[in-house]
């Protein structure tokens, strides 16, 4: 340049703008000292460099070309971004000037003016407008979309604010206080960011103590750098660190009940200083979410009430178009929701009812009516018509215009039908009255009968003329007549209907009536007449008396039943408190009554019970109560007993009247009774006294039948001990069955008695037998508690456990016994188990759990159990046999021992009872019976096992008769599993010496 730069520095150093001279190639030839203050750049460094080195690459070409094209001295301006010494871009306006002098030098001058502050203000304004527009759109979306779309609204909102704020992840987390958890409810993630919604979305509140403490204040959580958090955040840092976040910003979602959750921004790839705009965006979003959740709860409650309302409900536009309907409304219209929505209400209303709906709706829309009330006929698709009572109320906007109406519709078809029926009824009134079987009477205010129907003649044999004009004579008939006068006066006085029952006696014949007195009002609302309708209920009363008798008496014998006996007994006990010992009870049970039923049939059994009842009534004193409890059980209640000898005398009389045979048809039937006697003392109750007499009766049976026994403290003690033992046994069964984890009753065990092949001496199997290691009595064999288990029903659970345990043990035998695969495991099934519907499933489960083969299991059933219900037993045995299980008849020879049932039931083995084995070789009869059983088994192809083999004599006789297998003390007593496995086999079958 021809001008000295120092001169230019002195001349241009005092101005506030940056001035530079640039040649045609864009090289800076001069720049004034202001550049150092504005850009932090040394002018000496700048001179000689191309001007575009300091311009943003998007602005450089445009700026230079625009300035270079202007040839005027007025200058050309362009806005550009200029880089300062720190590398930041600053907004500048560059104005270029050219003149003849400058052109001669090949230069043009540019003046650089800093407009960053103005530009930042504009950018901030634009950012604020964009922010407000964003919040407006988000708020509108929550308002316009239904609450069921709340989650979708949250997803959309997070996506918008996340992109607007340029964060990596935005999320909504909700607190579930009742579960002590926080859940990531909604989340938006930027590109290449893994969403947390696919993993575990919940965490315990305990992991975020510091985080929650800040939010509950409520306050915003501002974390520019997660690694800089202090020691107070140690508990929270583990969870937050797992989010892969470097920076986090969170705002609380608050409602009246406290903190609901939070909205959060996260930066995953770098630390971030969160601006006021970020905080403003996040807190505004949290407020919108809080309002949306409140609205969602309210709409959910309204939706539930709307949907579940028993009445039909609908929302309509002002023009009557359906917006929303509930199921009851659809049911009333007989249409689906899809067939109703979008259509006007009048499309479903009978045309004759349109006008009243239109008129009322116009008043409603104008605000001249608070609600629409109308009853209309609704047309259904099947052609039927129902009456609906419409109640519609408007929901108005702030300007008073109707947004929509809420309509309730109630089905009043039945009421309309009743009204129509009433109209028809009134038309037929006189015809019905004249032909009614009821006696109809009308009385005026003077209580004179002004009308009496002809039915009175048919019912009681009186002519209407006898009553008309002679009402006073009716009212004079004793207490009933006076009661009727007072009743009619009451109806005239109060105007209220009266219902009453009354009895009329004419010539010694009693009649019962159910009467209704109904007031008839005049135009002034005063009672003008009273209409009385009298229904003859004489037959009903007699039936009620009969039913009452039947409810308290045995229908077969006519004796008092259990209910009446307990009623008499409770009253007698109350009276006996004044005289202890004066109340005695006799409990009778017929001996071998089942034999009569089984042999002669139930008809004969019923006739026998009737005969017994008649004889009992003859045997007792007048006033004593005789009752039948059911079956063949009878009870005699004696009151006012002076001495126990009186009760004993009654017992002897009963025995005497029972001694003679009962003639039933052509048959003579003999029966006796076992009698238990109990005497009431202070504090006795009805059920306890019955129980005591019952216990004494069972003692009489045990001591030989056809006798009486008196209950005493010994029996009470025995009963108590029996109850205690039952309770202990129940708990012991619970322990082994896994119901109760503690055992203070001793343990239940399974012992095994070997079964021996009488040809080889080998052990071919074992019978599983229950044992109870009682805590007081010591080890008890089955005979000490099986009968108790049978009586109490515990045998079902006990038997199931023995089956499971035995199968489980036997399933492990093959590990220690070489010949175990040929063993047969024998387990007893009781009669009660056979009667259980799930007995087959119980066997299947036991076999499956133990892995024990069905063909190695033999189930033993007694003859008595088979014959209690032969049809049911046959079904069960058939199903068990289909599993492959072997079946044995236990104690054979002690019951029916019939070829017929052996052929009928699918049994494989007969077990000869020990009572016959005991006499072998000494008792010819026992030997003959065993020989017969052996022959029968061979003929039917059944296997044989003899029980109770205790001597060499037993063994020799069984081998001689051809019995195949045996078990008994001669070989081994029942022993625990370890001792069973240690038995020496084969056994020596030859006699010693």
Walk me through this protein's architecture.
- By secondary structure, this protein is of the alpha+beta class.
- It contains 37 helices and 37 strands.
- β36, α36 and β37 form a beta-alpha-beta unit.
- α6 packs parallel to α10.
- The chain is flat.
- The N and C termini lie far apart (151 Å).
Characteristic key phrases:
single chain; 993 residues; alpha+beta; eight-stranded mixed β-barrel; six-stranded antiparallel beta sheet; 37 helices; flat
What's the layout of helices and strands?
Elements: H1 5-12, E1 18-23, E2 28-31, H2 34-39, H3 43-46, H4 57-69, E3 76-83, E4 89-97, H5 100-105, E5 107-114, H6 116-144, H7 150-165, E6 169-176, E7 181-189, E8 202-204, H8 209-215, E9 221-223, H9 234-241, E10 247-255, E11 258-267, H10 276-308, E12 312-316, E13 322-325, H11 327-333, H12 337-340, H13 354-366, E14 372-379, E15 385-396, E16 402-411, H14 413-427, H15 429-435, E17 439-443, E18 449-452, H16 455-460, H17 464-467, H18 471-475, H19 478-494, E19 498-506, E20 509-521, E21 527-536, H20 538-552, H21 562-576, E22 584-590, H22 593-600, H23 602-619, E23 625-630, E24 633-638, H24 644-659, E25 662-664, E26 667-669, E27 673-679, H25 686-702, E28 708-710, H26 713-736, E29 747-757, E30 763-774, E31 778-780, H27 786-792, H28 795-811, E32 824-829, H29 831-834, H30 839-850, E33 857-862, H31 863-868, H32 870-882, E34 886-892, H33 899-904, E35 909-912, H34 914-917, H35 924-940, E36 943-946, H36 952-961, E37 965-966, H37 977-981
Helix pairs in contact: 6-7, 6-10, 7-10, 22-23, 23-24, 28-30
